[in-house]
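TEACHING EXERCISE
Course module: macromolecular assemblies
Task: Read the component lines below, then compare them to the predicted structure of the full complex.
Student: A.B.
Group: 4
Components provided:
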Amino acid sequence: MREKILYGLGLVGMGLLAWNLYKIAFDLPHQANVAAYQIVYFHVPAAITAFTGFFVALVASGLYLATGALKYDAFAAGVTEVAVAFASVNLATGMIWARYAWGIWWAWDARLTSMLACWLIYAGYLILRRAIDEPTQRARLSAFLSIFGCVDVGFVYKSIEWFRTQHPAPVLSIRQGGGMGPGMESPIYWNWLAMLCIASLLVIVRMRQEDVSREIDSLRRMAHSY
Amino acid sequence: MTLLRQTLTIAGKDLRSELRTKEALNASLAFSVVIFLLFSFAFDPGNLNLDINEFSGGLLWLAFAFAAALSLNRSFARELQNDCLDALVASPATPGVLFLGKALANFTLLLAVEMISLAVFSVMYDVRIRPQFGSLLLVILMTTWAMTVIGTAFSALTVNLRMRELMLPILTYPFLIPPLMAAILLTTDLLAGMPIGGDNAIWVRVLVAFDVIFSLLAVVFIDIVLVG
Amino acid sequence: MDPKEFQYVFAGLVAAWLILVIYAVSLGLRERRLRKELDRVRKMVEKR
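Instructor-supplied answer key:
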């Protein structure tokens, strides 16, 4: 059953992606013909996927703290790891876009720096988990970090609105001050959906590994207790 | 109000124990002066084209941030001997009160180090701090509180870990990037004589929001970390 | 699309998916290592 879900998600994700790529390359209205701008269609959804992941991890951490069931902690860890991967995609595509548009790989303005800080925070989360062996302590401390980290995510999200620097102002029509041309915005959302499918796929795979890892821990404990 | 009394008792205990030996105080102070010294090698002081006003804020806050890491690490680490941490957690003081007391003590010590370092800095780099001193003090107070809150919270978090000294900076500095960015930009402008306002005002709001939000979060959630 | 722009778009796409592919591969490697460990520990328990 699980295998079928995995394959299903993979197929849906890939399908959406292929359809979207076609649309971006050939089917957009005339204004979209600045070619490299099309990186935005991967840069923005990656960021939204990452933020969604961090928020879901926050909810999972909260559930762990409320119930004490370690499966929520495992879920939070898996989602955070996948979200960090998507945040890396966001940073990398951003850098390539920056090289094309502004001639430099990086700029130390408020938005880029705060996104990098967010990435560092959650990379620290992953490092923290590696540093603790005891499962309950690991879960507790990770949950605390997850709560703090998500507040910073809010800051990054808002910083695009608040600070007028090199990074483009909000372009999505759902945000204050945004608005692309008609018909140009939907590929962003479709790509987001595709990325969510792939993210869910990766999380499910990761969760399986967490289960195996916990089984190893308990078997090892059993083996050494004689 | 007993909550206030408990907080002040814990803060007083920490301050008294630190002032007896002055270990962390002297170490932080010496460290920040060394940083100023090392930075002077990075930039050629004889170069008349070099305008200190371009990076005065950055240099100052980098020194403060590194000095803070030294003293914040000890905050909970010194309670590990003789099970003092367990005793504190088991006392009638709630974890939030414990956190606030330690944060208050750390804040006072850090502020003392920073004020002295600021004087040394203005002498070493020939920077006038008298104009805009009120605004400068305000920025220093708010940012120091931000560093204290995050640093004390993560000191509590990492106190029982193997790699405590390594994990504290790794976790703390990314969180401090927004307030430090704000402080650096504001300080650079203030030391150049410009008042706060217009473009700068948003950074003041960032500092205030950061302080309020993270102070509340830390006090409310610290019992996750400080449980017995 | 002139060729230079195309290069950048291509580089961007490759970078984005390369990161995800590397992550997926690392997951796969971890899975293999975990399975081996699981088998080893199971054998250790059965021996007793």
